[in-house]
Amino acid sequence: MATLTAKKSIFDMDNDEFGKLVKPVALKAKQTALDNGAWFSYKNELCVEADMFIREFKDGHKELIKLGKQPGEHTVLKVF
C-alpha cells in the first residue's frame, strides 16, 4: 500500500522553499532550449536600459544585446 505524504502548498512557501522547488525545472528547461539550438536570455547588472539583454549560447559564449525598433532587430554591444 502506498504511503501519502502531505506536501506544502506553493502559496505557503517562502522564497527559498519556492526557489528550491522550481530550480531543477528551470535548469532542465534552459538545457533543453540550448540543446535545441536556442539561446537563453536574461538580464543582469550590465543591462542598464530596458531594451538590453544577455543572450547565452550552448557553447558558453554570451552577448550583451540591445533590441531594435523592428521585430528581430538587435545590436550586439559586447561579446564575452
Biggest β-sheet, characterized? 4 strands, antiparallel
Distance between the terminal alpha carbons, to the nearest Å? 55 Å
Portion in helices: 25-40%
- Which class do the helix and strand fractions yield? alpha+beta
Mean pLDDT: 93
Could you give the topology of this structure?
Blueprint: H1 15-35, E1 40-42, E2 52-56, E3 62-67, E4 74-79
Antiparallel strand pairs: 1-2, 2-3, 3-4
Summarize the structure in words.
The protein has one helix at 15-35; strands at 40-42, 52-56, 62-67, 74-79. By secondary structure, the chain is of the alpha+beta class. It has a domain at 38-80. A four-stranded antiparallel β-sheet has the order 1-2-3-4. The protein is elongated, with a radius of gyration of 18 Å.
State the main characteristics.
four-stranded antiparallel beta sheet, single chain, alpha+beta, 80 residues, 1 helix
Short description:
26% of the residues lie in helices and 25% in strands.
